[in-house]
């Protein structure tokens, strides 16, 4: 169970735990979530791990470390753990690797290191909800594990009107016990997540592996452009206040400014009122999603975009308003743990380049960073495709990822013993 073939075959096995026979869809607190936990739990046990499901439906496997080799303060109670893993939930019509590859790689590494003494406990986690596909809130599993559960989430409903609280009970979990899932910082050495890149940069650089420098924190807005709805035939151009024409200029300005600054800006939804073929648009409501390597770059982009929008609306005699609906800080990966990942890449690909990338996509590591040091190993994926059934990885890349993740754990162990990590 320690080969790339084994890892790919297990990822394929997990396609069976789906809400639909013709596609992969595995949402939080569903029967297929329970089934995938059972299947992966069995592999964890085969790898010598003690298995349990926590109070939020996350699946954990653990083996003890050797406290005699630990650096720093000798803990009383169980020794702190280095956690490897990712998530087991998917978006609707998903590919086979987003999340699952990281969990299965972690199980395989645990098996490889089964008889190797480590200065910390080694844990593998399969987070229960990263995508947020069912309740509209991402990272529910890792927010519970990092003690960031918000009681305001309980009333969120899925598309069938089932509340999160009710779904907990149906799954056999006790909502009021969700706090039991929270891990304490003193019980953790770090969280190390392997994941497909979900972007084209490793492929473009002809590299199988990379490491993550920061994970972008997005800002999201609802933008409203208010003009004047008038007869499309009777209103000459000098009397028009076309909200859609102004909104279109703002969409293009967002793209241009983001490209110029190496950031990402996306208008993903747009509503035009009154929405008739013979009426000049009077009102446009649209979403905006901004991401960047750092919060400073992202916020600077927003400042420039507001200024550009101001110029557009002034010229067209319309008004512009923005409401912020979401803001998350970017997450920096811990230098000591990222150095261990780089050491792992060099071990797997001697003489190879360890390319550092910022991740525009969110990951469980963002939530875990609230309680412990985090780092990520990126694996090349075909054409940057993700959240789609065409998601694909190469077997030789998975073999290198397996070697790199194993070597990264050993490099982390060496740094931990030398006292470079602070549990
Ligand atoms: Zn993912």
3D structure, described in words:
This protein is α/β, with parallel strands linked by helices. It has two domains: 4-216 and 330-417, Zn peptidases (Aminopeptidase, 3-Layer(aba) Sandwich), CATH 3.40.630; 219-326, Alpha-Beta Plaits. Helices cover 33% and strands 20% of the residues. It is built from eleven helices and 14 strands. It has helices at 4-13, 31-46, 100-112, 140-145, 164-171, 201-204, 243-261, 295-316, 335-348, 364-368, 395-417, and strands spanning 50-53, 59-63, 81-87, 121-127, 188-196, 209-215, 219-226, 264-266, 270-273, 283-291, 319-327, 331-332, 355-359, 374-379. Strands 1, 2, 3, 4, 5, 6, 12, 13 and 14 form a nine-stranded mixed β-sheet that branches. Strands 7, 8, 9, 10 and 11 form a five-stranded antiparallel β-sheet that branches. Strand 1 (50-53) and strand 2 form a beta hairpin. The model has no long low-confidence stretch (mean pLDDT 95). The structure holds zinc ion.
